[in-house]
Amino acid sequence: MTFSRIPVEAHESWVGHLKRVVGEEEPMSSYSTGNTRRSKGEEQNRQEHYHDRINRYLKSHHSHHHVDEPTELAALEQHAQEVYLEREQTMQAQHDKKSKKHAKKHEKKLRAIYQDPGIHKSTAHGIMVDAGSTGTRLSVYEFEPRVLHNEREVEEAVSGRKLSYPGTESRWTDRLRPGLATFATIEDETELEDAIREYFSGLMEFALSVLHSKESDLASYPIYIRATGGMRTLTRSDRARVINSVRTVFSNETFCPFQFEDEYARVISGEEEAIFGWAGVNFVLGTLIEDSEGAGTVLNPEQTYGALDLGGASTQISFFEPTQDIMSNLFKLQIGQGKHWNLYAHSFLHYGMNAAKDRLNALLINGKSTQERLVDGVHNPCLPGGATLDVHTEIHFTPLGMETWNATVPSDVESVSYGNAILKNEGAVGNFEECARLATSLLHKEQNSWCDFSHRDDCSFAGVYQPELPARSQEVGEFLAFSNFYHVWDFLELPPRSSMADLKNAAEIACALGRDEVRAFAGDRVEEELVDHMCFHASYAWSMLTAGYGFKDTDYVTATNIVKGKKVGWHLGAMMYEINTLPWTYASDGAHISHAHSRDHAIGGPNTIYFSAILAAIGAIVSIFAVRSRRQRSLY
Fold first, then answer.
1. For residue range 14-40, what is the model confidence (pLDDT) as tens digits?
2. 223-227, strands of its sheet edge to edge
3. How far apart are alpha carbons 395 and 363 in whole angstroms?
4. What is the total count of domains within the chain?
5. What are phi and psi of 623, to 5 degrees?
6. Residue positions in the annotated binding site?
7. What is the pLDDT of residues 269-320, one digit of tens each?
8. Which residues are catalytic?
9. Would you say residue 536 lies in a domain?
10. Contact call for residues 536 and 382 (beta carbons, < 8 A)
11. What SS3 string covers 274-289?
12. Within a domain: 484
């Protein structure tokens, strides 16, 4: 399955143009094409020869300061853009090649899961699709059927003491790349739906392989598609187009035999993502359920844990504030009909790891001339010594130093491809101190001036209010960090529970490595294309936790992706929330229970009845409130 973004015809025209500009074919990038792959020495000589030709090209035309020949600079800019686009095509070809290998492994995985899915006969199921910025993950969950058998269980359900708990196994999860937001570039509605159908077909095949033994019950199992940071970065119209196409595709019962409604597919807000992350962590650690029983507000829990999530496009923080002194960004979480939690939660869009790297590239090349960007190269202290990186960004800066999508290029640059540049580190090693300074500048703490005034210095970064981090106490334990925080810990070989001083020391060591050394150090823990970025990843994680959120050197954070055998993340908390909004059914002891639902939610089985009128009314009120709250919090 491939999703080519660059047409072959355009590629052929780029090659011709490059030959006209520098008198020879363009240099090979570090990515191989076809069956040809040059050695590292050959590639370096070729790149040096190419840049020498460009330098002579500039000198022969009176250098980049000669404004009487603006078309020559434009040609150089155009050339850089074409090299970038060809590299993108080469990367896409490599991705397609990897996809074919992955497809073979995927077929083997499907056969294995089909033969032994490990599904219990008596359980009900739900499916959560996490559509993130870099990829999409589908997880199958199981839980006890939402059926009450006697008056005691009815009383427990009404009082909030009876909840449904989702369970899953790692083998019930499948994933794919790229992210769903990629499809926003497809403008034709039919083509968009076809692409999305093809995109999700493998995940649907996987889900059906896991649940094939319950074919007659599939229509009663809800499937939720929740898109996060990557989709939040799109324009409103692009978000709507993609989500509407997803809804159209999943509304087809032939494609999706599971229970699906339009509202099951939506872009969740960053704060929802933060709260669900907190709920997932505390559910796995056993601190959520018992304290949620009853009615009212949770005030004195046994112990809770904060949650820190660093994704590709956004980052989230959420925690229980024991004094309940939350002046802003307070959100209420209620599981089923139990008590509700008052939580501090905030999400920072464009502060995820990948988004931060893009903003760093834009910051480094801001105000640089064509000569500096495309010939001399721009220094990046976050790269390992000797590394060179070709980058492209669509981000520009306002005169006040804030990012913008509106182009504000220097007067001597005519091309819209101002975002192309060569970043490099001419030194022997990277520099943690300089890299951390740049990483901290990306947090925009200079925007805190009004927040510091209005909230008496209770602010994190980017002008956002945050109460002081709760001290470790009986009510509040330490913070758990996952996603890219975990990947940084793993790269640095830190113990899961580490202090901020430990993180800084490890990052300093990692940044003080040359290119070959950092590759040897990373081993198989880091994908090849990410190795040169790991000094920045470590510096950014440390800057965000300390300069951003306010952790002290002596504060500890536990970074992990697995807790008590379960994958932690917002998707687990979201599934727990969703299944506890599903209606209960009632059957007297000994009655036969049928779990099959049709798409209009009719409940099968002659001996299955709904709650009494009073309980039905209560359930309806709770359900309406939950749906309305979700709609108010979601983007689509």
1. 233 333 333 444 333 333 333 334 444
2. 173-176, 136-143, 124-131, 223-227, 265-267
3. 9
4. 2
5. -65, -45
6. 312-316
7. 999 999 999 999 999 998 887 777 777 788 878 789 999 999 999 999 999 9
8. 273
9. no
10. yes
11. HHHHHHHHHHHCCCCH
12. no
